[in-house]
Structure formats: C-alpha cells, structure tokens
Backbone:
C-alpha cells in the first residue's frame, strides 16, 4: 500500500469517527429536547372578544384540547339532530309525500 | 357593508365572511345528501382558497361533516334508504382497512414516494370508478331502449354483486332487509376493509369509493347505497371531529355556521333523490368523480388556485342541477295531486 493511499484511508477513518461523534452528540441533544416543536403555543386570542359564541369557544379551546374535542362532537351532533328534525319538519310543511320510497333504478 | 357579515374565527385566527361559510356548507350539503358522500373534495379546497389554514380546513370540514350527515341520515332513514345492519358490518371492515392503509402510507413516506405515488393512484382510481359508472349507465340506457323498442320485458343480466353473493357463501349468511339482499357477512366486511384501505391510502373520506362499492360489489339499490354510505360518513365524521378537535384543529365557530347551511342543503339534496331514478344519480355521480379527478390533475400540474376555484365552481354547478331536479319534482308532485297533467317527466 502506498503512503498516499494509507493517508487517504487514515483521513477517511478520521472523518467517519468525527461524523459518528457528531451524530451521537446531536442525537443525544435531540433526545434530551424531546420531539421537534412544530408550534410552541396554540392558544386562541380572547383579547378584545365580546361575550358571545366566539369568546365561549375560545375559552373552551384554551382550557384544554380534550374538553374542546368533546365539545366539538357534542355541538355538531346536537346541532345535526336539532337541524335534521327541524328541516325535516319544515320540508313536510310543503305538503310533500315523504314516506318510504320504492327503490326503482 | 360587507364588514357587517365578517365574523371573527377565534381558533383559525382570522375574519371570514359568514355568507361564504353558509354557501360552502349549503353546496356540499346538497351534493352530500344526494350522492351520499362527505364532500371533503369541495370543502377543504374551498376553505383553503379563502385563506383558511389547511389543517384547520380539514378539521373544520370533518366536524361539520358529522353533523351534516346526521341531517341526511335522518331523512334517508325515513325514506327507508338506510341499511343499519349493513352499515355497521361495513364500518367494522372499514376501520380495520383504514388502519392498514395508514400504515401503508407511512411505509411509502419512509421510502419518500408517498406524495407522488398517492396522487397518481388517486387520479387512476377515480378515473376507473368514474368510467365504470358511466359505462354501466350507458349500457343500461341502451338496453332499456332496445327492450322498449322490442316491446319485451327488461332483460335481467347477472351483475358482479349477484355473482359474488352466489359464489361467496361462507357462513354466517345474513339477510339485509333494507337492501333486499342475502349474503355472507364476510362480503360487506371484506368490501368495507378494501374500501377502507383504498380510502386511507388515497386520503379521501371514502364516500367516492364506498358508494359505488355498495352498488356494484354488495348489490344495494342506488338509494340504499346513498343512505347507508351517509350512515357510515356520520360515524367517521364524528370520529374525525373528535380526533381533530383534541389536536386543536377545528374552528368550531366556522363549523357551526357551515353546518347551518349544510343542514338546509342536505335536506334538499336528500329529498331530491325522491324525484330521480337511481341511474340518474349514478350518471351525475360519474360526472362528479371526473371533476374531482380533473382537480387533482390540476394540482399535479401545480395549479393549486385553479384547481380550488374549479372544484368550488363545479360543486355549485352540480348542486344547481340537483336543486333544479328537486324543484321540477315538487312541481310535478303538486300538479299531479291537483289532477292536472304532469309538466315534465322524471329524470
């Protein structure tokens, strides 16, 4: 093996060790810091909001996402049921026959 | 003047025109009630082009979708179009399929090809479904015309679903009353599973895939396919509302306004099915699939804004067609009640 080749191999080995060390050190730092942050604060701004629907929603949102998730489902289901039966009643006031349908193709 | 109608959305952190929310909701409500689909293909790009951040657009869409589907399911249920037993058995398969699909997507992401592969698959798949539904409509119409010309009773050809029901007889065999079919319980489970995998991989709610699958693979009448699919959308929409809600990605104020418009639209879209034949629904559904396909192609060409405007305009146009069928149907029903001749024939 020539001197030049052995120097090249030695440099490559040094670079590999340095690279590995960087990966280990940065990996440890990364692990210590936890998962990468996407958005540090996720808060609805309630400043200047007058009492009403917007403020109520924003306050629940700021109280906690688990509660907010539950409220979203309850509000959507509640509104769906009320509006469903309400619009159904309104449609029947048009005097249409809204009984069972024949499944003709 | 316009600022009067601007409302503050505290979670998305922006002002938004309330009429726009009502219009988007109404449009998707009409289409959803008529076709039995959730309508994410209209709502998400529509909200996004008006400045809604994408994660909030998806979450808000899913939240209002759950409520809107309840409105349609109530009406379809009264029409006898919802097969709850079939819907529940499909939900089981769909849930498992969606989980597997999500894992497949993660595997594709690790390889770094998820985006390009999924978008191409989406276009090919939608084009295939749209073409098949259109082909079925054309052959059915031609056959009916031939039968009428000969004065013969309509010829009954064995469908793919009937073949599947005959050959795939693994117990337990179940009778689905509303659909009027008897088949192995494994058939809807497997179809649900497959559509779940495809829907999850392609990132769509599933209505575009499940509705034709219910017709062509299970053998449901079109109206029962629409109603049963909405029953499934209702469940997946409620789950989607919760999962995006706990991640803080739903603007509840926007979802409530949209649901108000969607509930009115869904009621009208659902009642419109009373005045059309099943095959007319299939034809318009095929056109809708081609439109969704074209919008994805535009996105692929990096024409994001053009794609969103195209899909929103097409949605408004389609709901306009459905509403015109509804108005004609109501006029026909009223005039036939009064004893005068019907003004137009049903579509």
Residues:
């Amino acid at each position: 093996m020539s001197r030049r080749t052995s120097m090249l191999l030695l440099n490559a080995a040094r670079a590999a060790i340095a690279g590995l060390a960087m990966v280990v050190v940065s990996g440890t730092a990364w692990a210590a810091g936890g998962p990468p942050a996407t958005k540090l604060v996720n808060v609805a701004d309630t400043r200047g909001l007058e009492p009403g629907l917007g403020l109520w929603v924003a306050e629940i949102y700021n109280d906690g996402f688990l509660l907010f998730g539950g409220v979203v489902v309850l509000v959507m289901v509640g509104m769906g049921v009320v509006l469903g039966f309400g619009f159904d009643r309104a449609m029947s006031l048009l005097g249409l026959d809204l009984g069972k349908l024949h499944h003709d193709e | 003047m316009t600022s009067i109608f601007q409302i503050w959305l505290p979670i998305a952190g922006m002002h938004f025109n309330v009429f726009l929310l009502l219009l988007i909701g109404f449009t998707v409500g009409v289409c959803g009630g008529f076709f039995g689909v959730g309508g994410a293909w209209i709502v998400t790009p529509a909200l996004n082009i008006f400045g809604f951040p994408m994660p909030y657009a998806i979450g808000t869409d899913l939240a209002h979708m759950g409520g809107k589907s309840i409105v349609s399911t109530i009406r379809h249920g009264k029409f006898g179009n919802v097969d709850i037993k079939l819907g529940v058995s499909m939900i089981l398969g769909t849930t498992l399929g969606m989980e597997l699909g999500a894992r497949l997507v993660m595997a594709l992401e690790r390889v770094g090809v998820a985006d390009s592969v999924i978008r191409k698959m989406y276009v090919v798949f939608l084009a295939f479904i749209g073409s098949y539904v259109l082909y079925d409509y054309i052959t059915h119409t031609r056959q009916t015309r031939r039968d009428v010309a000969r004065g013969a009773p309509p010829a009954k050809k064995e469908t793919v679903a009937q073949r599947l029901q005959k050959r795939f007889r693994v117990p337990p065999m179940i009778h689905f009353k509303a659909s009027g079919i008897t088949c192995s319980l494994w058939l809807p489970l497997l179809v649900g599973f497959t559509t779940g995998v495809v829907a999850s991989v392609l990132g769509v709610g599933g209505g575009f895939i499940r509705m034709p699958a219910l017709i062509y693979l299970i053998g449901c009448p079109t109206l029962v396919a629409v109603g049963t699919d909405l029953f499934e959308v209702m469940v997946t929409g409620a789950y989607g509302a919760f999962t995006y809600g706990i991640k803080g990605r739903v603007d509840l104020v926007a979802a409530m306004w949209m649901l108000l418009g969607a509930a009115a639209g869904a009621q009208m879209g659902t009642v419109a099915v009373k005045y059309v034949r099943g095959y007319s629904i299939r034809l318009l559904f095929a056109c809708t699939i081609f439109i969704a396909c074209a919008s994805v192609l535009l996105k692929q060409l990096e024409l994001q804004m053009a794609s969103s405007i195209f899909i929103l305009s097409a949605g408004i146009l389609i709901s306009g067609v459905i509403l015109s069928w509804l108005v004609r149907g109501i006029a026909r029903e009223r005039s036939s009640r009064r004893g005068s001749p019907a003004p137009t024939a049903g579509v």
